[in-house]
């Protein structure tokens, strides 16, 4: 099976909704969408450090720097390097980074019951509602965690997407494609 990812959806959503999905209002990257920006063949070089994405094209020329490839998360490696995270001072992040990628089928396990965390998906992004008092037992006004609730939050809910700013953004939804 081959995985194809919904990164474009996530980016478009944030740009279009402007709904305070994130305080930062930055595009969201996950490992597979970050990998596109490997600094090769004219592509910019991005890296993820501690939850944020930086454009390091000027340092990662040819897509590498000190043996590290662009298009990946290097949080620990950078912290442990000779210069630590100092080079990032003054650099504005260009995106938010989440490491979790789940298919809809995988998401369905995160019901908030039987000891599982409670996750919900909206517009291709996954939020953790485990610790929300409004989502006890993975339920909220008849809706259940483990599902894509985009339509419900946009339609039936009185609050819309602004409440998503109150819960952690932890991942992106991905689609699993038939093998060709
Ligand atoms: C904005 C991003 C970065 C900038 C501007 C930057 C800049 C530099 C500079 C100027 C040096 C040579 C002088 C020195 O050691 O201070 C260097 C060396 C080094 N950097 Fe970075 N760096 C960046 C990101 C990273 C990252 C993400 C890592 C790890 C994943 C890393 C790992 C290293 C290592 C290991 C060396 C020593 C290289 C060697 O001597 O072989 N750097 N960096
Ligand atoms: C008829 C349907 C719904 C009703 C009546 C409802 C009602 C509420 C109310 C009254 C709150 C309190 C906070 C506020 O309004 O700002 C709340 C919070 C919230 N709701 Fe809903 N909701 C509905 C559907 C949904 C759906 C489909 C989602 C999908 C993700 C959702 C996600 C949330 C979240 C994440 C919070 C914030 C939780 C927190 O702050 O811990 N709601 N909802």
Question: How would you describe the overall organization of this protein?
Answer:
With 180 residues, the protein is an alpha+beta fold. The protein folds into two domains: 2-97, Flavocytochrome B2, Chain A, domain 1, CATH 3.10.120; 102-177, Flavocytochrome B2, Chain A, domain 1. It has five helices and 14 strands. Strands 1, 9, 10, 11 and 14 form a five-stranded mixed β-sheet that branches. The longest helix is centred in the N-terminal third of the chain and has 11 residues, at 7-17. Mean pLDDT is 89; it is low at 1-21. Bound molecules: protoporphyrin IX containing FE (HEM) (2 copies). One protoporphyrin IX containing FE binds at residues 47, 56, 59, 65-66, 68, 74, 77-78, 81-83, 87-88, 91.
CATH architecture title of the largest domain: Roll
Report the CATH superfamily of the largest domain.
Cytochrome b5-like heme/steroid binding domain
The CATH topology of the largest domain comes to Flavocytochrome B2, Chain A, domain 1
Report the total helices. 5
Mean pLDDT across residues = 89
Strand element count: 14
Order of helices and strands: EHEHEEEEEHEEHEEEEHE
CATH class of the largest domain: Alpha Beta
The shape is elongated
The number of domains: 2
Task: Provide the list of bound ligands, each named once.
Answer: protoporphyrin IX containing FE
Q: What is the share of helical residues?
A: 10-25%
Structural class: alpha+beta
Characterize the largest beta sheet: strand count, sense, and whether it forms a barrel: 5 strands, mixed
Question: What radius of gyration results from the CA coordinates?
Answer: 18 Å
Distance between the termini: 9 Å
Ranges with pLDDT <50 over ≥5 residues? 1-21
């Amino acid at each position: 099976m081959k995985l194809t990812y919904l990164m474009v959806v996530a980016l478009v959503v944030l740009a279009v909704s402007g709904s305070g999905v994130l305080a930062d209002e930055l595009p969201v990257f996950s490992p597979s969408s970050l990998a596109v920006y490997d600094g090769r063949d004219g592509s910019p070089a991005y890296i993820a450090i501690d939850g944020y994405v930086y454009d390091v094209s000027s340092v990662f020329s040819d897509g590498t720097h000190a043996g590290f490839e662009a298009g990946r998360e290097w949080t620990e490696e950078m912290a442990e390097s000779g210069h630590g995270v100092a080079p990032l001072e003054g650099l504005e992040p260009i995106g938010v980074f989440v490491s979790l990628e789940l298919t809809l089928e995988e998401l369905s396990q995160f019901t908030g019951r039987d000891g599982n965390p409670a996750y919900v998906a909206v517009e291709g992004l996954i939020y953790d509602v485990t610790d929300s008092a409004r989502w006890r037992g993975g339920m909220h006004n008849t809706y259940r965690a483990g599902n894509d609730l985009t339509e419900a939050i946009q339609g039936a809910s009185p609050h819309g997407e602004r409440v998503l700013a109150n819960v952690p953004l932890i991942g992106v939804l991905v689609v699993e494609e038939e093998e060709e």
